[in-house]
Design brief:
Elements (H helix, E strand, L loop, with lengths): L1 H31 L2 H11 L10 H20 L1 H4 L2 H5 L6 H12 L6 H27 L20 H18 L1 H12 L15 H6 L2 H5 L7 H6 L5 H8 L3 E4 L4 E4 L10 E4 H32 L41
Antiparallel strand pairs: 1-2, 2-3
Helix pairs in contact: 1-2, 1-3, 1-7, 3-14, 7-8, 7-14, 8-14
């Protein structure tokens, strides 16, 4: 069953890779604000019956569907199955949420649109890196105690193939952590600036922004719901060693050997390449979870500007035939023939 699930998810992501140029076009048009062409491109991808693009709320939902269908579905399905995680943000104290949104938009690099653009760039980078990561991805369908990293490795990648993606994902996640931290503060302590005691010394949003990535990651804990849900694995010492060029890679053993403390160069630690790639995947999945939180903040921003949700209009005609012939267009909206798209999957 796990093997079949793995196969289905890889097939879904293969479709994402194939259709990425269209996805990327939508993301670029949304960023550029070209609404007319944006809606045209969205209609090429998603059925108009269900994503109508009648106002900004529906347009932002359509753009969000790229991440949901293309990335969350194959990589972090449980977030789709727990919709209350995202929708509960809509129920938090409005004044505090609006103040937090204003704070983010007033700081360069942390505005809602700027953070979304950081995520979009990482999506494209993941598209290029995923083929290297398939063996590491497969391990989440295995029982972890049965994996022997000393004897089992990957034949699809080397350290240099995934290093930059690892670094960029770490940096992006380090910026995005401000979102779950602040939302947990609002939910549990009624104030985005009311941080729990932490060994990073971060006591306010201002302090978060001026802190290093290493200190920000110390905020991660499993006691606060929005932080806990990102469920991330990372190796801060290894990340710091990469920054100091204190890393060597043994091709024969697939060991990454690093110096965790530059002041004690005689002490070395090691990690296998597959473990390194598992961490990269884990951090990317955490980015996808926070992207759900960010989407809800962007919804609330539009609502505060007076954009009203429109009533749902159910399609009056039958959406598709009972039988889909191989040369017909796939009903998913990809524009491909069924035999080349979901029929093949």
């Amino acid at each position: 069953d796990n093997y079949k699930d793995f196969g289905r998810r890889v097939a879904t992501f293969k479709h994402t890779i194939n259709i990425w140029p269209q996805y990327k076009r939508v993301l670029q048009l949304y960023k550029g604000g070209n609404r007319e062409y944006l809606i045209q491109e969205i209609k090429k991808i998603f059925p108009e019956d269900f994503i109508m693009c009648r106002n900004e709320l529906e347009i932002i939902r359509a753009v969000r569907m790229i991440e949901v269908h293309g990335f969350l579905l194959p990589l972090k399905l449980e977030i789709i199955c727990l919709p209350e995680i995202g929708s509960s943000i809509l129920k938090l104290e409005k004044e505090q949420i609006n103040s937090f949104i204003e704070y983010l938009n007033s700081h360069d690099g942390y505005g809602l649109n700027q953070m979304q653009e950081q995520i979009n760039v990482l999506l494209g980078e993941f598209i290029e890196t995923f083929p290297y990561l398939v063996p590491a991805f497969s391990l989440q369908f295995c029982e972890e105690e049965n994996i022997d990293f000393e004897t089992e490795g990957t034949t699809t990648s080397t350290y240099d193939d995934v290093k930059q993606f690892y670094l960029d994902t770490y940096e992006t996640l380090g910026n995005l952590l401000i979102i779950p931290a602040a939302i947990d503060n609002i939910k549990n302590r009624d104030d985005a600036n009311n941080f729990i005691n932490n060994d990073a010394g971060i006591v306010s949003l201002d302090k978060f922004i001026t802190s290093s990535k290493a200190h920000r990651f110390r905020l991660y804990n499993t006691n606060e719901i929005y932080m806990r849900t990102i469920d991330v694995r990372y190796n801060q010492k290894l990340r710091n060693a990469i920054g100091h060029n204190d890393v060597e890679y043994e091709t024969s053993t697939q060991k990454i050997i690093y110096i965790p403390d530059p002041r004690k160069r005689e002490k070395k630690l090691s990690e296998y390449l597959l473990e390194f790639e598992i961490e990269a995947l884990s951090m990317f999945k955490a980015v996808l979870v926070i992207s759900e939180y960010l989407y809800r903040l962007r919804e609330l921003e539009l609502l505060s500007k007076g954009v009203k949700p429109l009533p749902v209009e159910f399609p009056t005609k039958k959406r598709r035939k009972e039988k889909i012939y191989p040369n017909e267009k796939c009903p998913c909206g990809s524009g491909l023939k069924y035999k080349k798209c979901h029929g093949k999957i």
